[in-house]
Amino acid sequence: MSMTTTPQGGEPDRLLSLLPAHLRTRDEQSGGALRALLAVVASELELLEQDLADLYDGWFVETCDEDLLSRIADLIGLTEALPDLGEGTSWRPVVAHTISYRRNKGTVAVLEQVAREVTGWPCRAVEYFRLLTTTAHVNHPRGDRPAVASLRHADRLDRTGGGHGLRAVRPDARPEVHDLTRGAIEPLAHTAEVRRIPTGRGRFGINQVGIFLFPLRSCEVGSADAVDLWPQARATAGGWTFDQLGRSTPLFADVPHKGDAREHLASENELPVPLRPRRLKALLEEARRGALDARHLPLGVRIGRAGDPLPPGRLRVCGLEGLAPGTDDQVCVDAAAGRLVVYRDGAPLPSAEVFVRYHYGRLAEVGAGPYDRSERLGRALAADGYGSEGILTRINVRSGPSPMPSAVRSLADALATVEQYPPPDGSSPGQTVVVAIGDSASYVGNLAVAVPEGTRLVLVAASAPHRAPTPDSAGQPVGAACVTEGLRPHLYGSLTVSGARGSSLVLDGITIEGNVSVPTGDFSGLTVSHCTVTGRVAVVPDTPPGTGSTLRINLIRSVVGAVELTRSVSALLITDSVVDASSGGTAVSAPGSHLSISGSTVRGDILVRGIDADSALLDGLLLAEDRQTGCLRYSYVRPGSRTPRRFRCVPASGADSDLAPVYASEDPGSPLYLALARTCPVPIAEGGEGGTEMGVHHHLHRPLRQTALHRHLTQYLPAELEFGIIGS
Known about the structure:
- By secondary structure, the chain is an alpha/beta fold.
- Helix 11 (about 410-420) links the parallel strand 13 (about 390-395) and strand 14 (about 430-435).
């Protein structure tokens, strides 16, 4: 709700129209002094009208600013504090619906709605007295709670949870569905437990309610409306994987967006949980009957670069369905492992070009992904220290047919075009060239590019802007020229960059299965934002070696295998990222660099000149040459490390040397990759700044969300009942 009148100041015509005509004519003849005066008055009037409009908007919870929510909360008696719960979370729904909560106090639907809006995550509330076996009564039969599970109802058995809470998963184990559902959709009855649910040990009790939180998100790779943009499946032994890197990762289904108000409890279809094989089979059967549009299926498969996707009748579920009669191409899908096998004439097809559409789960927007990165792309451009964000030109790359006639199909050709641009003249400090990859294809082969002098090269996963491009895009903001959503291109090879004086490189939204190498010397900087680099980010020496290098390496929300820098690199910044060299070797080797790391996880040894760390998880031996400068705050450091002074780090000096992080999964294909498990020691799980967790998921504020939920749920719980929060 807002005012219908909008500010119209800023132009003197509005005030001049109120004056008699002879005064306006005389002012024009005398040089426009009155018009200039009214222009100043009009600008002040515009500020006053805008202030009145903001004041009116501040009266309503739907339109007020975030900083006014606490005042409205005081007016309705919401005395609980409203802390910052991380990005993407607002207290506006909680404040807006508090009165509705109180009117429906004591119902399980309110508990679920409060949990969903306080945390910002999908959730499910389970009343455990409904899952208890009881002695049958002839007047009150309960056929839905048999004391013995029937082996004939496979779908009910398939939804049975495994164990209490989340278990740490071995790196070599296949992703398990039950490790992510944690029994939230379990339909089988149990005998009563005497252990209490607030302790996290008991569940099935008469007076116990479980609140299951699901912080995962389902991301779609490829679109049903853009078949030509589907990524290519990765060929492996015995079939293909949906993941372009060949990782085994569980498939997810699309989770429809629901409004704030919901009177029914969440079902499996509304939760971001892995796609069960029997659930996939049920969806395929609906599509085969015509009751479900094939575009609404959670996955799709196309054989060959041309043609349409396979119909639902030719998609089969591994282990549950046999091949259909006929000789057409058919695909068997293993949803739990994210794998598929193509059959032709009833026999496995050894080789083919397979293109897929699917959903996968993620906990945070770290690494390459199809999520929207437009806002963070602007931050990455501002962080590289280059300055101007004006675009000299934009080169569109698309491996298949493109609606833009100027698009090129080869990434190597696009980079070769960049090398031909002349350096900027003395009138401008620099120029920006954007190479936008407009699909999710796999580009095979090593690439090399020489960035011209005074040029910043932005290699980004982005499609064409919604508006038509202008002939001259000079000075256009980079973010306005890119639509950084829905794409995840894959470079199957290494990228080697060389550059002249003042040149720099920004990578955003790209999966690189190889190394990224840049030179020292006059090269200005490298920014890796929202990328996945399976190899190492390395700085190679010049020939002859550069002197006085000002090169800066900046990792933002990325996943890399290792960082290896020469002694001439002075600065390395790692923000909300993962450096995982757990397979062996050193994670960060930068003997001449000062490392600034914030909210990141590093697995492997670290060798740097100096270090500043904040809410970081340094799961390796840290050796800092200069221990007189820098500081480690709210971070985990492995015992035996040589560090500068520490402030509230774990383990404390001379104590708790056995503390170590426990991960929910160490498999890069798992949705909970390097997330801290529920069994992780509290000093690490809640030892980050502000009471958050240490490591790459620090910005999610998961402990703060659960603490805030515990405070808010207490006032809506029926008498004599207990609740337990079961989250990741």
